[in-house]
Design a protein that fits this description.
Helix content is 38%, strand content 20%. It has helices at 15-26, 51-65; strands at residues 9-12, 35-40, 43-46. It has a three-stranded antiparallel sheet, covered by helices on one side. A hairpin with a 2-residue loop joins strand 2 (35-40) and strand 3. The radius of gyration is 15 Å and the shape is elongated.
Length: 71
């Protein structure tokens, strides 16, 4: 039996965010693929070194989706 070990960061998120992460991974939108394993509907294991880039990309997306009520 061969055991394969991977070091990464476990991300817990809703299914929609997981699909967004998979999309970013498959399209190499962050410059590389970073998903190590899709574990279930709300968990994914990703490479640790991509976290700062991923956080910035998600922050940008949230800023684009946010709106301010104007009186």
């Amino acid at each position: 039996i061969m055991v394969i070990s991977q070091t990464g960061v476990l991300v817990t998120c809703d299914p929609q965010m997981k699909q967004f992460l998979i999309h970013l991974d498959q399209t190499k939108a962050l410059g590389q693929q970073f998903v190590l394993s899709e574990l279930d509907a709300t968990h994914v294991l990703i490479e640790a070194d991509i976290i700062p880039v991923l956080q910035a990309r998600i922050d940008d997306l949230m800023d684009q989706l946010s709106f301010v009520e104007v009186n």
